C-alpha cells in the first residue's frame, strides 16, 4: 500500500513536474538494471539428500553459482541480499506440472462413422509434441516461482495417447516459449481413456486398441526394415508419425508416462510392458502401495498425484506442527504413540480409510523402496502442501525432499537443475524457514541466475511487530519527496492489507510481516498503464523505513505510526 501510493505520486509527478525525476529516466530505466552479482550471507543450505551446511555464503554471477561456502568473500560489485536465518534449498520440480499449451481442438465432422473414426478422434495422438504448442513465457511462471517451483514436466493428457511431453524451466524473463524448454522429449503420455462417441469407448476396447496399435507399429517397422535392406519388389513405405513414436517406446528409447490410479489399472500397465517392452512411469498412482513389491521388482517409478481429494463426511484431526524440520523430526514421528481410534459413522469411516490410504501412499512406497515423486497432478494441486500431508501420514522428510527435487528432475532428464555448488546453474530457492514448516515462505527465487523476490516476509519467522494502524509515509526518489497516508490492518499470521491516499488519489495493497521486517508487492493501473512496485522495510517501534524498486528506479521510504491508530 505504501508502494501503491508511491506509484501514484510518481506517475503524477512525472506527468506534471519535469523535475520530479531525472530527465529521460522513464525512457532509459523502466526497471533498474540487474546487479552484476548477488550474494546471500550465512544461510543454511539443504541438499536434495538432506545434508545441511550452516553459515554458507552464496555468490551468483552470470547465471551460475560463482562461489559457495563458509567464509566466502563477497565481491565488491555484488548486491548483498539478506541471508541470516534463511534456508536455501534446490528449487522444487513438479514432474506433472502446469504450463500454457495451446493444442488445436479435435473436431468431429458430420460424416464420421463411430466404428471407423480418424485417429485423432480415437485418441491416438502419439506424434503430438508439447514443445510445438507451448505458449508459456517467463512472466507466465510468476505464480509457480512464488510457490518455490523452478521446473516442471508438462505431460499432455485427455487422450489414449496424448503425445510427447517436455520439461521446462520457469525462467524469469524469457519471451519465447521454446526458451523455457530444457528437454523436448520427456516421454509419451498414455491412459486407459476411451474416446467420446466413437470406438474405442470402453476399457475393453481401449486395451484392444492399444495392443493393435503396438502391433501395427511393429509391423510398420518390419516393412521399413525390409525395404531398407532390399527395396526390390516393394513399394516405398510411407511415414507414420504415431507408429514411429510407438516403436521408440517399444525399443525402450522413450519412457511411457501411463496414467493409472487404481491397483488393477497399474497391473494392466504391467501386462502391456511385459508384452511390448515399454518402460512405464505410473502417473497418479494413488493405489501404488498395493502393488509396491511389483513396482520395485520391475523398477517402475511413480508420479504421485498430489491433488488429493478433500474430506466431506470425515473431519481429520489437525496435524501436530510443533516438531521442526530436522533429522530429529523423522525419529519423533516414528516414536509417537498411535492415537486412540475415533468413533465414526459408516460413511465417515469409509472416507477416512480411503483418504488415509491416499495420504499414506508415499510413506508406504518409501518403506517398500519404490522410486517416486510427488506432483501437483497437472492441475490445481499444490506440491508442497501434498508433501506436507504425506509427511503427516508417514513419509520421512529426507525422502520427501528428494520426491520434490532430485527424483522428479532425474525422471525428466534434467538432474542438473537441483544441484547446488560452485559452477552449477544458479537455480535455487531461499525460504524464511525449514521448507516443511507451515509458516515458511519463499524469500528469493533464482532460476539460472534470473532473480525474483518471493511473496514471503523478512525471513524472521513469526511477526514480532504489529503494523495495524494509521501511518504517514514519505518516499524519496529522484531528489523529490512524496508524502502519503496509509491505513493498515494486520492478521495474526503476519499478512496485512489496507488503503493508501495522497493528493493524487487512493489505492489498495497487501503485504507480510516476518520478524520485524515488512515486505510489500503492489500492482496498479494508473492512467491505463499497469505498474508494479515492491520493497522491504524494517519496523522499530512506531517507525518504519526501507527501500524498494519501481518502474522509474529505486526509492527509499520512512514513516511514523500515529498514536492510537488515527491521525
Describe this structure in words.
The protein has 567 residues and is an alpha+beta fold. It has 4 domains: 85 residues, Urease, subunit C, domain 1; 69 residues, no CATH class; 191 residues, TIM Barrel (Alpha-Beta Barrel); 104 residues, Quinohemoprotein amine dehydrogenase alpha subunit, domain 2 (Lipocalin). The protein has 15 helices and 26 strands. Strands 1, 2, 3, 4, 5, 16, 17 and 18 form an 8-stranded mixed β-sheet that branches. An 8-stranded antiparallel barrel has the order 19-20-21-22-23-24-25-26. The chain has a 6-stranded mixed β-sheet with strand order 8-11-12-13-14-15. Helix 8 links the parallel strand 12 and strand 13. The radius of gyration is 27 Å and the shape is elongated. The two termini are 17 Å apart. The N terminus is likely disordered.
Keywords:
alpha+beta; disordered N terminus; Urease, subunit C, domain 1; eight-stranded antiparallel beta barrel; eight-stranded mixed sheet; TIM Barrel; 567 residues
Q: Brief description of this entry?
A:
This protein has 567 residues and is α+β, with helices and mostly antiparallel strands.
CATH fold call of the largest domain: TIM Barrel
Largest sheet: 8 strands, mixed
- The total of beta strands comes to 26
* Second-tier CATH architecture of the largest domain: Alpha-Beta Barrel
Helix/strand class: alpha+beta
The DSSP helix count reads: 15
3D shape: elongated
Amino acid at each position: 500500500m505504501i508502494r501503491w501510493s508511491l506509484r501514484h505520486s510518481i506517475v503524477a509527478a512525472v506527468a506534471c513536474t519535469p523535475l520530479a525525476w531525472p530527465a529521460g529516466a522513464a525512457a532509459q530505466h523502466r526497471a533498474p538494471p540487474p546487479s552484476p552479482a548477488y550474494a546471500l550471507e550465512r544461510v543454511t543450505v539443504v541438499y536434495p539428500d538432506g545434508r545441511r551446511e550452516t553459515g554458507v555464503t552464496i555468490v551468483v554471477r552470470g547465471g551460475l553459482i560463482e562461489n559457495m561456502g563458509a567464509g566466502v568473500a563477497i565481491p565488491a560489485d555484488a548486491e548483498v541480499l539478506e541471508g541470516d536465518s534463511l534456508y536455501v534449498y534446490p528449487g522444487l520440480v513438479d514432474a506433472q506440472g502446469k504450463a500454457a499449451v495451446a493444442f488445436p481442438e479435435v473436431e468431429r465432422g458430420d460424416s464420421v462413422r463411430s466404428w471407423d473414426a480418424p485417429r485423432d478422434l480415437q485418441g491416438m495422438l502419439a506424434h503430438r509434441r508439447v514443445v510445438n504448442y507451448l505458449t508459456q513465457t517467463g512472466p507466465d511462471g510468476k505464480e509457480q516461482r512464488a510457490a518455490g517451483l523452478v521446473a516442471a514436466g508438462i505431460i499432455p493428457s485427455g487422450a489414449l495417447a496424448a503425445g510427447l511431453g517436455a520439461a521446462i524451466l520457469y525462467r524469469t524473463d524469457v519471451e519465447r516459449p521454446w526458451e523455457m524448454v530444457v528437454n523436448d522429449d520427456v516421454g509419451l503420455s498414455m491412459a486407459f481413456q476411451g474416446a467420446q462417441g466413437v470406438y474405442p469407448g470402453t476399457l475393453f476396447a481401449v486395451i484392444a486398441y492399444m495392443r493393435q496399435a503396438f502391433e501395427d507399429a511393429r509391423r510398420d517397422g518390419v516393412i521399413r526394415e525390409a525395404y531398407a535392406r532390399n527395396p526390390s519388389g516393394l513399394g516405398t513405405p510411407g511415414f507414420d508419425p504415431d507408429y514411429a513414436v510407438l516403436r521408440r517406446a517399444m525399443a525402450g528409447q522413450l519412457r511411457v508416462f501411463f496414467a493409472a490410479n487404481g491397483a488393477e489399472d497399474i497391473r494392466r500397465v504391467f501386462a502391456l510392458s511385459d508384452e511390448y517392452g515399454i518402460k512405464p512411469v505410473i502417473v497418479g498412482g494413488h493405489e501404488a502401495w498395493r502393488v509396491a513389491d511389483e513396482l520395485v521388482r520391475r523398477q517402475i517409478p511413480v508420479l504421485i498425484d498430489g491433488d488429493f481429494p478433500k474430506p466431506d463426511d470425515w473431519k481429520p484431526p489437525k496435524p501436530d506442527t510443533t516438531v521442526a524440520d530436522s533429522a530429529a523430526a523423522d525419529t519423533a514421528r516414528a516414536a509417537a504413540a498411535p492415537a486412540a481410534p475415533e468413533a465414526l459413522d459408516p460413511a465417515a469411516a469409509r472416507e477416512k480409510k480411503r483418504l488415509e490410504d491416499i495420504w499414506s501412499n508415499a510413506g508406504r512406497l518409501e518403506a517398500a523402496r519404490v522410486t517416486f515423486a510427488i506432483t501437483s497432478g497437472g492441475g490445481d494441486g499444490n506440491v508442497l502442501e501434498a508433501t506436507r500431508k504425506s509427511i503427516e501420514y508417514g513419509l520421512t522428510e529426507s525422502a520427501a525432499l528428494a520426491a520434490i527435487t532430485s527424483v522428479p528432475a532425474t525422471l525428466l532428464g534434467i538432474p542438473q537443475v537441483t544441484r547446488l555448488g560452485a559452477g552449477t546453474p544458479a537455480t535455487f530457492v531461499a525460504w524464511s524457514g525449514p521448507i516443511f514448516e507451515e509458516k515458511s515462505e519463499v524469500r528469493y527465487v533464482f532460476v539460472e541466475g534470473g532473480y525474483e523476490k518471493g511473496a514471503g516476509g523478512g525471513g524472521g519467522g513469526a511477526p514480532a511487530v504489529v503494523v495495524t494502524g494509521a501511518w504517514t509515509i514519505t518516499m524519496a526518489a529522484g531528489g523529490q519527496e512524496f508524502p502519503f497516508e496509509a491505513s493498515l490492518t494486520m492478521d495474526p499470521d503476519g499478512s496485512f492489507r489496507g488503503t493508501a491516499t495522497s493528493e493524487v488519489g487512493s489505492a489498495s495493497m497487501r503485504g507480510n510481516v516476518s520478524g520485524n521486517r515488512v515486505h510489500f508487492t503492489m500492482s496498479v493501473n494508473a492512467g491505463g498503464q499497469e505498474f508494479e512496485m515492491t520493497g522491504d522495510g524494517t519496523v522499530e517501534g512506531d517507525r518504519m523505513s526501507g527501500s524498494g524498486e519501481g518502474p522509474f528506479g529505486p526509492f527509499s521510504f520512512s514513516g511514523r505510526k500515529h498514536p492510537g491508530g488515527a491521525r
